[in-house]
TrEMBL record:
Function text: Catalyzes the transfer of the alpha-amino group from S-adenosyl-L-methionine (SAM) to 7-keto-8-aminopelargonic acid (KAPA) to form 7,8-diaminopelargonic acid (DAPA). It is the only aminotransferase known to utilize SAM as an amino donor.
This protein's name: Adenosylmethionine-8-amino-7-oxononanoate aminotransferase
Catalytic activity: (8S)-8-amino-7-oxononanoate + S-adenosyl-L-methionine = S-adenosyl-4-methylsulfanyl-2-oxobutanoate + (7R,8S)-7,8-diammoniononanoate
GO cellular component: cytoplasm
Recorded GO MF terms: adenosylmethionine-8-amino-7-oxononanoate transaminase activity; pyridoxal phosphate binding
Length: 449
């Protein structure tokens, strides 16, 4: 007998510990947070076992670029499955990892010449932090042991990545385990004081970095930044000028610049790499999420040749002796190659410009809503902050919004009171207009309820 949809929910709650979830919220009677058993996905839609559908307006945690069950990526993976599913990357190499590394290097104008692979975003961040420290140590600068991060930064949940994260909800419980990082002012354009532009805020935030570097550069290995949009803190957007100014400071004070493009890379902000908008390259660039089209866990760190050369030696201990079992997995790399091919074949970045204009126009009534503040957009990210003066209702806003969105065929999960859209790059005009309309309807319901 076929399993009933409700069985999957009950069985999941008995056996699966879901991520980033207070599990009791799934078992809270009338206030219960829904748990949807997904049966399959097609294009921008996820379907449950009863045939109900949900527009994946946040690309399944920002990973899915070209829709579920994408025919091009599916075909590439099926082909790769019959060739090589996996081989260790120490002492062996293979076509997908070589081609992917070459293409990514090419896309940085060969400034970032080598790619080091891992699986999840947090592991890429760990790699960049370790590499930065070790590169300085190999250069005889072993006092450079500190890392700088931005207010509200998010770089993942492993111990090293959490140490450079500044989101209390995720970090505070583990405080005693973490090495303290130096936290500098966020260039978040919402911090503009009267008469200040986003560029003024960027200059003020960069001045804070300059002051810290003047005092401590001899002890600082790297500054880590989510370029253009600090996503997990609530889609805090800043002017590209900030990146240009910090790059200059890093050069002047001999501090590495790590750009975490895990969420904002792969075209999300309008250019393939977010840092292109500031006309700079970092010393380390972390990619994950969208790079495999949302199919398989893949992350990587692109580095400058100076960094690579700092490890190149006859002495084994000067090498970067870091590894993960699935490093450079051929299936994941093949999914990434298919993803890059779609960018080229479908002129994705240009077509996204038209998509973005249409959705921004469709969202205009929400932008002007009396209970909305700070409507903002960059590339394929839209966000706004809900005004909810009642503290108890503000605390449950996100959960209520998520549940109401599902009733309106939308997958949306606000961060606190920040509602955001990060859809895949395939929405038809009809889907885009429907998304705007329904987001407005859900917002009105949740604000009024
Ligand atoms: C900017 C940034 N860095 C790192 C991570 C961690 O990636 P993962 O969840 O794959 O470990 C995330 C995840 O949301 C992220 O947004």
């Amino acid at each position: 007998m076929a399993d009933m949809p409700q069985d999957w929910v009950a069985r999941s709650l008995r056996s699966v510990w879901h991520p980033c979830t207070q599990m009791q919220h799934h078992a809270n009677g009338d206030n219960s947070v829904p748990l949807i058993p997904v049966s399959h996905g097609r294009g921008a839609w996820l379907y449950d076992h009863e045939g109900k559908r949900y527009l994946d307006a946040i690309s399944s945690w920002w990973v899915n670029l070209f829709g579920h069950a994408n025919p091009v990526i599916n075909a590439a993976l099926k082909d790769q499955l019959d060739r090589l599913e996996h081989a260790m990357l120490a002492g062996f190499t293979h076509e997908p990892v070589v081609r992917l590394s070459e293409q990514l290097s090419e896309m940085t104008g060969k400034v970032l010449g080598h790619a080091f692979y891992a699986s999840d975003g947090a592991s890429a961040v760990e790699i960049a932090l370790k590499m930065s420290f070790h590169a300085w140590r190999n250069a005889g600068l072993s006092d450079k042991q500190e890392f700088v991060c931005l207010q509200g930064s998010y770089h993942g949940e492993t111990i090293g990545a959490l140490a450079v994260t500044d989101v209390a909800l995720f970090k505070d419980a583990y405080g005693p385990l973490l090495r303290a990082a130096r936290v500098v002012t966020s260039p978040d354009a919402r911090n503009a004081q009267d008469g200040e532009s986003a560029q003024d805020v960027a200059r003020r935030a960069a001045a804070d970095v300059e002051k810290l570097f003047e005092e401590r550069a001899g002890h600082i290995a790297a500054i880590i930044i989510e370029p253009l949009v600090q996503c997990a803190t609530g889609m805090a957007m800043h002017d590209p000028l900030y990146l240009t100014l910090v790059r200059e400071l890093c050069d002047r004070f001999q501090v590495h610049m790590i750009l975490d493009e895990i969420a904002v890379g792969c075209g999300r902000t309008g250019t393939f790499f977010a840092c292109e908008q500031a006309a700079i390259w970092p010393d380390f660039l972390c990619l994950s999420k969208g790079i495999s089209g949302g199919y398989l866990p893949l992350s990587l760190v692109l580095t400058r040749d100076e960094v690579y050369q700092a490890f190149y030696s006859a002495d084994v201990t000067r090498g970067f002796l870091h590894s993960h079992s699935y490093t450079g997995n051929p299936l994941a790399c093949r999914a990434a190659l298919a993803t890059l091919q779609i960018f080229k074949d479908d002129d994705v970045l240009n077509r996204n410009r038209a998509r973005a204009t249409r959705l921004t126009t469709a969202l205009a009534p929400l932008a002007e809503h009396e209970r909305v503040r700070n409507f903002r957009q960059r590339g394929m990210i839209w966000a706004f902050d809900a005004v909810e003066p009642d503290a108890a209702r503000a605390a449950t806003f996100s959960r209520r919004f998520f549940a109401s969105a599902l009733e309106n065929e939308l997958l949306l999960r606000p961060i606190g009171r920040t509602v955001y859209l990060m859809p895949p790059y395939i929405l038809s005009d009809e889907e885009s207009d429907g998304l705007a309309e329904r987001t407005r309807a859900v917002f009105d319901t949740v604000i009024a309820s």
